[in-house]
Write a structure and sequence with these properties.
Helices cover 59% and strands 15% of the residues. Bound molecules: zinc ion.
Amino acid sequence: MGLIELASSNSFWRGVDYYKSNKVISWKKNDEDTYSGTVKGSNGKQYDVYVDVEHPRKSKCSCPFAEDKRVICKHMLALYFTAKPEALEDYLTEMEEYERQLEEEEERRSIEHEQELMKKAKSMSKSDLIEELVLAWLRIEEIESSRYYYE
Ligand SMILES: [Zn+2]
């Protein structure tokens, strides 16, 4: 798993925010996969950050959240995104694509379900249809009155 996948969703979005608001004061590339830098924290503090892209758990930050723990913090992500903006872009694009696929799947299922219901209704007798319709109306009334109750 990469830095992004290992971070909590809260740390991820805070990291994006820190990156976009230029909280990374300075940074340098050590070698192909590691970066070092200084990142502005809240209340004027500055933290020393080290990011290892290939071995994310080896990343370090002097902030209280990450110090001496093997967790990914927002400062590491801010540094990572500053050094490799395309990593964030790629991730966001992937996430959008995934959400789009989910929506498409949802849409497809809902159309299928509607078709099934249509088929079922067409196969029913008129008296059965009337009975089902009245039951459905009663359920709708029930749902609407309980909604009203909780408002
Ligand atoms: Zn940190």
